[in-house]
Design goal:
Blueprint: E1 13-18, H1 26-40, E2 44-49, H2 69-79, E3 83-89, H3 97-104, H4 108-111, E4 115-121, H5 129-141, E5 145-153, H6 169-189, H7 192-202
Parallel strand pairs: 1-2, 1-3, 3-4, 4-5
Length: 211
């Protein structure tokens, strides 16, 4: 692991949330590659596979205990991250229901002010643009910083080899770059220089002519 870019004593944490429950999921394979890019920049990375969580359907309840331990676990794991990568297959021109439900079970506490990267796969040749657009709107509503770079993998069924690697290096590089950018922006957002600026702003002397 490389030295953290943020100058802190430990690496920043980047998590990828897999919005696919399918065995052999192409979304899962792609997120694994994106996390490689984040690790190149010094991130501590984790893949959060929604297939490993027993998540009830969101019913709008404000009682966290009513949702069960796996919702609390998911919220804690996302909340501990500085950068988040959301991955989904494109279903009917949007992102998956399982990812939507997981996002509905979380909120500002987990996402506000965080760097978020978007990745989507599709079975068709047009790519997953609609799913990415929908996720970008969700990121804004959660007050997250959605990075400009995004990754779409068209015809995902023919893009991976038996070891889960992308055959097209240009696509693979775009996916890795997504992970890199999430980490880079997270580092920038947490840079000591930025914190010094904020402290100076907060400690600015009283302006008697400001009233």
């Amino acid at each position: 692991m490389t030295t953290p870019m943020n100058g802190s004593s430990g690496p920043l944490r980047v998590v990828a949330i897999c919005g696919s429950l399918r065995p052999g999921s192409f979304t899962r394979k792609a997120l694994t590659i994106a996390l490689e890019g984040a690790r190149e920049q010094g991130a501590e990375t984790y893949l959060l596979d929604l297939a490993d969580y027993d998540l009830p359907l969101c019913n709008g309840s404000k009682d966290a205990a009513s949702y069960g331990p796996d919702v609390a676990r998911l919220r804690q794991e996302i909340g501990a991250a500085t950068g988040i990568i959301l991955g989904t297959p494109e279903y009917h021109s949007s992102f998956s229901g399982v990812l939507k439900n997981a996002l509905d079970l979380t909120g500002f506490e987990q996402f506000e002010g965080k760097m978020v990267g978007l990745l989507a796969v599709s079975g068709g040749s047009m790519g997953a643009t609609n799913a990415l657009t929908a996720l970008r709107a969700v990121g804004r509503s959660l007050h997250a910083w959605v990075v400009p770079h995004e990754a779409s993998i068209p015809q995902a069924w023919k893009q991976f080899d038996e070891d889960g690697n992308l055959k097209d290096e240009a696509i693979a590089e775009r996916v890795r770059e997504l992970g890199r950018q999430v980490m880079r922006f997270a580092c920038l957002h947490n840079a000591e220089q930025a914190l010094d600026f904020l402290r100076a702003w907060e400690d600015a002397p009283f302006n008697p002519g400001g009233e």
